[in-house]
Amino acid sequence: MRLYSLSVLYKGDPKVHLLKAAYDVSTFNFFQRSSVQEFMTFTSQLIVERSELGSRASVKEQEYLCHVYVRNDGLAGVVIGDNEYPQRVCFTLLDKVLDEFSRQVSKIDWPSGSPATISYAALDGYLIKYQVRPARR
């Protein structure tokens, strides 16, 4: 069971844009990592774009399961994991991240924000914390 990506996006009127993201592509071949990360960013944006405000969904994309939560205020989160990762845990993580993000980052910054301009450093920590490590024998 593995998580690969955790993203916070804003579903604006003309389009969706990424506010902040964390990736764990360490299990991929070195030469594939950047294209896998681009795929995850693109897929996250596409899923949020196609989702209604106030909705939650799980979408299968290739060998990944993408969990999306779009709040009524346009703030959205996407977790991309493998097929075995529990759906309930993903949505709990998204609730927690979006609540914390909305408290720390002003709503005024969401429509114009980007990963370079938004100051929110907790995503990498959450991605590490929620990884399921195989039990040692």
UniProtKB/TrEMBL annotation:
Any GO molecular function: SNAP receptor activity
Xref: PROSITE patterns: LONGIN
CDD domains on file: Longin
Cell compartments where the protein resides: Endomembrane system
Gene Ontology process terms (BP): endoplasmic reticulum to Golgi vesicle-mediated transport; protein transport
InterPro entries: Longin-like_dom_sf, Longin_dom
Keyword terms of this UniProt record: Lipoprotein, Membrane, Methylation, Palmitate, Prenylation, Protein transport, Transport
Transmembrane regions listed in the UniProt entry: none
Domain Longin: 8-127
GO cellular component: Golgi apparatus
Keyword Transcription tagged: no
Keyword Repeat: no
Membrane topology: Lipid-anchor
Family the entry assigns: Belongs to the synaptobrevin family.
Protein known as: Longin domain-containing protein
Taxonomic source organism: Eudyptula minor
